[in-house]
Amino acid sequence: MAMTPTPTQPREEFIQRSRSSAVAGSGLNLLEVAALKMHFPLTQGIVFQRQVGAVRAVDGIDFFVEKGETLGLVGESGCGKSTTGRAILQLYKPTAGSVKFDGTELTTLGGEQMRRMRRRMQMIFQDPYASLNPRMTVGNIIGEPLEVHHLAAGKAKTERVQELLRIVGLNPYFTNRYPHEFSGGQRQRIGVARALAVEPDFIVADEPISALDVSIQAQVINLLEELQEKFNLTYLFIAHDLSVVRHISDRVAVMYLGKIVELADRIDLYENPLHPYSQALLSAVPIPDPVIETKRKRIILTGDVPSPVNPPTGCRFHTRCWKAQQICSEVDPEFIEHAPRHWAACHFPGA
Amino acid sequence: MPELLEVKDLKTQFFTRDGVVRAVDGVSFELAAGETLGIVGESGCGKTVTALSLMRLIPQPPGKIVNGSIMFDGADVMKMDDDEVRGIRGNNIAMIFQDPMTSLNPVLTISRQITEALELHLKMDRAEARKRTVELLDLVNIPSAKKRLDDYPHQFSGGMRQRVMIAMALSCNPKLILADEPTTALDVTIQAQILDLLKNLAREFRTAFILITHDLGVVAGMTQRIHVMYAGKIVEKADTGELFANPKMPYTWGLLRSIPRLDELRKAKLVPIEGLPPDLIALPPGCRFEPRCQYRREICAKEEPELVGIPNAKPDHEARCWGTQQGGWLVDLDWRHEIGDIAVLEEIKKEIADLPPDVKRAGEAGGGTPPPPPPA
């Protein structure tokens, strides 16, 4: 059975309450995601395609993002973290569940209404080489969202583009240059400027620094932090690097095979990880200090992540978990609040 | 101890239409048998080209090793003809590449790719080589190795492929393994598996290792000595403990404080290294790091410093910096004060020393033992 902090409380009621609290939060939420599922069908046949299964990339997740905070989403490749980001922005049509942005349900919005909503939510992509059109000048790349949303045209647009370039730390006279004339870090700044052009409230940053060199990564992280302060932005920061996520985020969600297994404050997650997967993930990150490295005890997980087409029954982590008992392979643990603002989905959380 | 590998003044250049790219520009180092060395630097600093040069794998043209000597086990690799070099490659020196997806041949079975080296270098026959291959795959913890012999690389996951690469590198009992970013393409939990494996194998077989990476965290736990490279030159070399406790060169400081640490207690502002690495075709006349260095003085732009010892540091700790030479302005500077956060650092150290016991206990329980099998 799942552990309940207050034994007197009936379990069902407790789960109900803590589940809804994972979505409801404090009332200042910009984004609320409930039971979000994103399945990609697997088909067979040429003319008559019949569905033979589904890649369950995201399989029922609940969380909220408060105004002005950064929520980090961390996990290994294939865990569904990028799909989550895209499904929130409705770049994929979610299979089930609800995504509420500032009170508006996005999953049922029509094309024109959605386009208007998109002005308030933008995305920064991983690969600064692939996400900028090589045939467009920087001025056109950054100016395009201004035109699409009828925010500025003509001279006003040019001025706005130059201002944006200045904001992200580039020379405003670069407007007529092409992406290939810039280094990786500079291109990522262009991507940031494009996202900022429409003055959004919410930015999904999908591995924005993974393609950059170590000394350049810090430049982009600092830029993102400065911009957040300046424009009161809310971030969903997706990355596989736990130390980067922990650095930039206020709260961190750990994903494994399409589910969020733990969600906690950045300090709390590090000091008191409840889910065995979070514990393993934390212990696997190397720390640049030989004194610490020789002292640390590493949890080495065996095997690879199972396929999301056919995830294990019960808890999805039980095939690699050293604490697994019989119940773990039978019952999927609920995602419940074990401590204030600290959610985890595990039958045996903590030590 | 006699040195296994001695590289002197290695210069590798690429002749392109735009000019001569001085990728490796006078690199010297040595390595004893069984020793592990880390080479750290950003992309384009010449660390991979150094490794390829050691095995004479530089594509020619456009590349050429224009200067230097590479003494391996008493023989000069530079003076060998192609046949002799081929006798060393994969046999005495093996290499593990970054990307296990592209460095295995997709149209050959796993067993064929490993037996090839065994038959060629160790003159084994087919059956013998196959038997040895199973042993090797077992050694790198590939489950049911016997059944997987005739699988193709695409049937393996990324971590498994990297294990195959390691099995291949170990196949001829090499004296030296060059591992070029062996875990960069892998997830953290898989990275931990592979690093653990490499560490155990190096200890077991007393193989010398050169671990090339951009990740200071990876070398911290894996190597005995570290060389930091920048723009084709070694800019700082020291024992691993010494380098992290007492780094001297401003570029090394820059690397250390530009990465967020998992164990940071409060949100410290990252200090990025401003600007970009220099163009290897048109290098600055003085110190190569001078344009990006916040501690630079007049002399730095004029003359290039040598890699020399540092006053009040360990004797084998060397840096290529005017400021750290005798009477220099950086000799007595503590880099932790430069971040302005020495107290936090001490706090972190204490914090880790008495890590929550549950994390430790969990580690002992989970260390290597497979989880109980799910009930049937």
Number of strands of chain B: 12
Mean pLDDT of chain B: 83
Greatest interface: A-B, 66 and 68 residues
Quaternary assembly? heterodimer
Q: What is the N-to-C order of secondary-structure elements of chain A (H for helix, E for strand)?
A: HEEEHEEHEHHHEHEHEEHHHHEE
- Largest sheet: spatial strand order of chain B: 6-7-8-3-9-10-12-11
**Total of DSSP H or I helical runs spanning 4+ residues of chain A:** 12
The largest sheet of chain B is: 8 strands, mixed
Mean pLDDT of chain A: 86
Number of strands of chain A: 12
Overall shape of chain A: it is globular
Rg of chain A (CA only): 21 Å
Strand content of chain B: 15-25%
Provide an overview of this structure.
Chain A is of the alpha/beta class and 351 residues long. Chain A contains twelve helices and twelve strands. Chain A has helices at residues 11-24, 81-88, 111-118, 138-148, 154-167, 184-196, 214-231, 242-248, 266-271, 276-284, 290-295, 326-330, and strands at 29-44, 50-66, 70-74, 96-101, 104-105, 121-124, 202-206, 234-239, 251-256, 259-265, 336-339, 342-344. In chain A, α4 packs across α5, α4 (138-148) packs parallel to α6 (184-196) and α6 packs parallel to α7. Chain B has helices spanning 47-54, 82-88, 110-121, 126-139, 145-148, 158-170, 188-205, 216-222, 240-245, 250-258, 298-302, 335-339, 342-353, 357-366; strands spanning 3-16, 19-32, 36-40, 63-72, 75-76, 93-96, 176-180, 208-213, 225-230, 233-239, 307-309, 318-320. In chain B, the strands form two sheets. Chain B has an eight-stranded mixed sheet, sandwiched between helices. A four-stranded antiparallel sheet of chain B has the order 2-1-4-5. The longest helix of chain B is centred in the middle third of the chain and has 18 residues, at 188-205. The radius of gyration of chain B is 22 Å and the shape is globular. The model of chain B is unreliable at 359-376 (pLDDT under 50). Classes of the chains: A alpha/beta (351), B alpha/beta (376). At the A-B interface, α7, α8, α9, α10 and α11 of A face α7, α8, α9, α10 and α13 of B.
